Amino acid sequence: MPTLKFDGTAAQYGTVYSGTLSVYSDYFVAANLIIVNAAPRPDGKRLGAQALALRILGEKAALYNCRLLGFQDTFNDDTGKHFFKGCYIEGTVDFIFGDGRSLYLNTHIHVIPGDRVAMITAQGRQNQNDNGGYSFVHCRVTGTGQIAFLGRAWMPAPRVIFSYTTMSDVVRPEGWSDNFKPQVQKTVFYGEYQCKGPGAKASGRVKYAKALTYGQVQEYTSLDFIEAAKWLLPPPRL
């Protein structure tokens, strides 16, 4: 697999411009590609140490069997409808963030150990009328140590759903964070359905997270969530 590598940081370029690869076009597709931001791991002391591997702003993008490697802010799933299948994404803090409307299928999400607290997603929906949201279907969340939130409320109305996903004990019992802003508990949409593994236990979850029913989850497990019938093509043969 070919590798794209760069070591830009937020201190050098600004967070969203620090990426190894930035996609502004519509109808982008990538397969069998490794995208790495090789900047040093943020240590909590250096300002602007966060660093993107990939940023996607275009509409109708698809990634197949790609690996996104970084630490804080690994992937800026910024805007547009996007599809990911068989991918691997790793990081520490907010390592999938932005306001894309995206379906992640059979994707491996890995929390790199070493931080006291990690956040997998920081979905950027501004209000409940915004159509952004992340849906993780038949995915795998790995790591150890009960350090990770599935999502934190970076913006007032994030929407993130995990369904049919296996979660290791890296996921904290409460599962989700209101980012110390209790007022957003009324506007977030955090849902889970038929997940399994030690990190998926419902007993410790925050009260504002939703245990979805079969009927409720259908909207988020279908390719219709990203209107795929209008644009999505099979991966290129390589």
Describe it for me?
- GO terms for molecular function: pectinesterase activity.
- It is an enzyme of class 3 (hydrolase).
- It catalyses: [(1->4)-alpha-D-galacturonosyl methyl ester](n) + n H2O = [(1->4)-alpha-D-galacturonosyl](n) + n methanol + n H(+).
- Pathway: Glycan metabolism; pectin degradation; 2-dehydro-3-deoxy-D-gluconate from pectin: step 1/5.
- Keywords: Aspartyl esterase, Hydrolase.
- The chain is mainly beta and 238 residues long.
- The protein has a single domain, classed as Single-stranded right-handed beta-helix, Pectin lyase-like (Pectate Lyase C-like), CATH 2.160.20.
- 5% of the residues lie in helices and 36% in strands.
- It is built from two helices and 22 strands.
- An eight-stranded parallel sheet has the order 3-6-9-12-15-18-21-22, with helices on one face. The chain has a seven-stranded parallel sheet with strand order 1-4-7-10-13-16-19, with no helix packed on it. It has a seven-stranded parallel sheet with strand order 2-5-8-11-14-17-20, with no helix packed on it.
- The chain is globular and about 40 Å long.
- The model has no long low-confidence stretch (mean pLDDT 97).
Give a summary of the structure in a few sentences.
Residues 12-227 form the Pectinesterase catalytic domain. The chain has two helices and 22 strands.
Number of strands: 22
Radius of gyration: 16 Å
| Shape label | globular
Helix/strand structural class: mainly beta
Q: What distance separates the N and C termini?
A: 11 Å
Pathway: Glycan metabolism; pectin degradation; 2-dehydro-3-deoxy-D-gluconate from pectin: step 1/5
EC number: 3.1.1.11
Enzyme class: hydrolase
Domain Pectinesterase catalytic: 12-227
